[in-house]
Design brief:
With 229 residues, the protein is α/β, with parallel strands linked by helices. The protein contains eleven helices and five strands, in the order E-H-H-H-H-H-E-E-H-H-H-H-E-E-H-H. Helices cover 40% and strands 12% of the residues.
Amino acid sequence: MSGEQSHHGHPHPGHPDHAHEHDHPHGEGSELSPIELRVRALESLLVEKGYVDPAALDVLIDTYETKVGPRNGARVVARAWSDPAYRDRLAADATAAIAELGISGRQGEHMVAVENTAAVHNLVVCTLCSCYPWSVLGLPPVWYKAPPYRSRAVAEPRAVLAEFGVALPAGTSVRVWDSTAEMRYLVVPMRPAGTEGWSEEALAHLVTRDSMIGTGLARDPAGASAGRP
């Protein structure tokens, strides 16, 4: 029978209060949300007062937005798909396993990897704020920080998944993980069929940001641009 479970830290029901760090969206756009407008105003004030160097801020944002993006996480998933020993290390201690690939940094200090299977689909949310592993997945998407996602992902995860285009078999349960300032999660999506013998680089092209949050699946290899080794 299918079901939905929510977890905080280690697998157990409930959503206890927890301290959160706050992420700050950045980027151009003619239509900004109230949160984005507030962040822009705060950023302008900090720059005006001389507390923040605009050039340094631009470098920081570019690093997470274009250089990190979800590519670090995709490398981790591709390695886990290709190397069973690495997959075991990732499951046992994700922080250390991710560091093996030279990946570490802001909000990625305490990681847990959860693997999707035919029986269980994992979904990550931060119910009280927007805790997110920047060093692994880059900047968080706007919808991840929005109150509707943060509340509905827990209350009606299947409906949320359906809105993202993810239709799960009736027998697959949904497990919801609540990120905190102390713990953040990486979903390891199921490896697509037909990718036997593919290189890690090619496999990484199949891994999307949403698939590592749980709101998406890995790309269909038939339609992916990644080539075989």
